[in-house]
Amino acid sequence: MDENKIFKKNMAALEQKYPELAIEIKNETIDTDRYKTTKSHNGEPNVMISRESDVLMLYDNDNPFNYCKAYFEELNIKYAPIVVFLGFGLGYHLYMFSKIYANGLGSKKILIFEEDISLFRLALEMVDMEEFIKHPDIYFFIGNEPEKSFFKIRREILAMDNHIYMRSFKIVPLPSHISLNPEYYTKVVNTVKNASCQMMITAGNDPMDSLLGMENILGNLENIVSNPGIN
User: Fold this and answer.
1) Which residues of 212-230 are buried (b: 16+ CB within 10 A; e: fewer)?
2) pLDDT bucket at 37, cuts 50 / 70 / 90
3) Which of 20, 85, 198, 230 makes the best surface tag, with the fewest CB within 10 Å?
4) pTM score of the predicted model
């Protein structure tokens, strides 16, 4: 499928589920000086992003899928009913997680936060994401300030029976994305933490133990920034 057909297919799905985001995407122009697309050795798309002092490659250029799989093996997640991805890129991490790990880890909801709307548009042009966009239990939060997601997380994602899984929130930080905008992703973790904390208090539960993992993630973001990925 050529890139134009992929983009149209993705946009049709986006317009159905995220109409406001679809309008933003249509109006977004990709900075071709900042973003350079390339093919990895196994033929899958990859992206190089220019920064002030260097160029960041989002994925290992040998095989992006193997790179993502190795990352999940390193995380060694045991149980993940509600998963929060800090970054999206071209969606390889989400693809590998949903196809290989999600069922075995008992995943019920997946939240995707991506700060870079230009990068998201580029992904829509390059990768077929219709399945994930349409999925009723996958939620995309793209470009906006993370705090704007607070009420949706409380109202829809943590509503009804889902609050019982809040003790096992799993944050999946994608190092390359954290290095590009650590402040944004710190806000994401704080927003998710605050939303889940309020829901647990409302449900009559003590939120402290379940939120310890998020505090650890916040503390580790500096280490992630210092080890950003592929240069």
Assistant:
1) eebeebeeebeebbeebbb
2) very high
3) 20
4) 0.87
Q: What are phi and psi of 125, to 5 degrees?
A: -80, -25
Residue reference for tokens 């920064």: 51
Would you tell me the crossing angle of helices 117-126 and 19-27 to the nearest 10 degrees? 90
- What are 92's two structure tokens? 């390889």
Residue 222 has a pLDDT of: 58
Q: Which of 171, 189, 174, 172 is nearest to 229 (CA)?
A: 174
Length of the chain: 231
- State how far Cα 43 lies from the chain centre: 23
How does pLDDT run across 17-28, given as a tens digit for each residue? 999 999 999 999
> Could you tell me how far CA 8 lies from the centroid of its own chain?
22
Q: Domain ranges in the chain?
A: 3-226
Determine if residue 188 is left, alpha or beta; phi over 0 gives left, psi from -120 to 50 gives alpha, anything else beta.
Answer: alpha
Residue 67 zone, left/alpha/beta (φ > 0; ψ -120 to 50; rest): alpha
